[in-house]
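notes to self, project folder thing:

trying the whole complex as one job this time. last attempt i did each chain seperately and stitching them together was a nightmare. two parts in total, labels are on each line so i dont mix them up again. if this works i'll redo the older ones the same way
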Amino acid sequence: MKRADVNFLQYPYILWAGLFIFIPLVIVLWYSFTVAGADGDAVFSLENYERFLSPVYMQVLSRSAVLAVKSTFICLLIGYPAALIITRLPRMWRNTILLLLVIPMWINFLLRTYAWMVLLGRRGVLNRILEFFGLPGQEWLYTETAVLIGMVYNFLPFMVLPLYSALSRIGKETIEAAEDLGANRFVVFRRVVLPQSVPGVIAGITMVFMPAVSAFVVSALLGGGQYMLIGNLIEQQFLYVGDWHFGSSLSIIMMVVILLTMALVSLYDKGASLEGGNLW
Amino acid sequence: MVKRPVSLIYLCLIFVFLYAPIAVLIVFSFNATRSTYSWGGFSLEWYRALFQDRQIMRALYYTVLVASLSAVISAVAGTAAAVGIHRMKARIRRIFLALNNVPVLNPDIVTGISLMALFTALHLRLGFGSLLLSHITFSIPYVVLCILPKLRQLPAEVTEAAMDLGATPLYAFYRVVIPEIAPGIFTGLLIAFTLSIDDFVISFFTTGSGVNNLSIVVYSMARRGINPKINAVSTLLFAAVFILLLIINKRDAAAKQLEV
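result (full assembly):
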């Protein structure tokens, strides 16, 4: 077939992707394995990675990981029943409910996070409500709880949507068959619904854990800079300290952590993580 | 399985959780005092202050300008790229799609710092140009992902038939392929626009020389504490998103009716 005339179309994007996607990553990798030498030249070194092994930075990494795991787990805990309930609603309602779930995600991420500053402030709405009921106001903002709430708030829809899509694909027949065979509803859930929803769970975990572990806005605004996460450390190195070599090694480490988590999670179900991506 | 009223209450609680922060912002944007604790009467004071704030207005201008430019450029470039990728040999295509997915899957902060490092290596001053280039870079992959499925649905015979009837390949492309994949292009354009408006992290690292988008201004203001002007900005943006959604929904409903 004569297609020559439009075949040229593949070349510009190959060039573009090479320059703006591939080369930047190579540069970051290069920075991570070099340090600035005495005469200003970059010298090959593993110093950046060694530095990361010191307790101060390991603590930042573990804090980020623990916080990401916590928020992923809470999202799963809140999101699973919600997704299950939505699948059982009349069809007419379902789309409206899903749309309502997505609308907050259309609002700027910064503003969504900022809104929690207004709610959680010392003289904020939450304390006002507590005082209305005669309870003492509390210090919410700039605590780990605030960061956790912010993360769950921002990432919950990423958990519910893939869960819903997996749960809604479960055929009614399989559930009815199990019931006919004498299973009670807990057995049906544990033996029929839960196993079939695993791809959704995996997609949800992937989609929440990744932004959670690399977050730096939520911790900067709601943690008030007291909760230094690996994302904040990278920001600091690039914008304030100016040590791009160390910042790059941190980025590489973060990517490795994410890749390892993905690999670990997808061991349970190969290829499932891509399904959630096709959702919208 | 779960009792009806309990499950409905549960869903309601989730929606309270999702919408309460937005509702609170909207309500307090009309508050006459700075407080987010007590109601001082209805006022449009913060909206007036907002429109007089030159920093915010400039940021708004850059946000809309960058979003429009990057959406249009990404849609055109993404269409060309999708068609190109579609015609690659399977093995090369797989490698190339993986590369295309890097900005989609990579954490934004890594995309941001890597682009910052690239622009510095190229001695490109950080500012409007680098901001626009970054937005195009992270938007094209999404446009490609929107268009590729449409191309896969398009049988090759359609193009061949057009050429058998005497169309040049280029003419067949414009008259046959483009109209068929137009819905994908439009969705890609909308996604690119939304992503650009919503982006903070990548912009934060790739802009400079006083060129800021709205997210960056909100970030620097919010770091200093609560500011009622941000409440007003949020309300206006929420209204804009809501109207946009209504338009898209109308369009979808109309399209569905046509299908029926």
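what i see at first glance: The mean pLDDT of chain B is 88.
need to look closer tmrw
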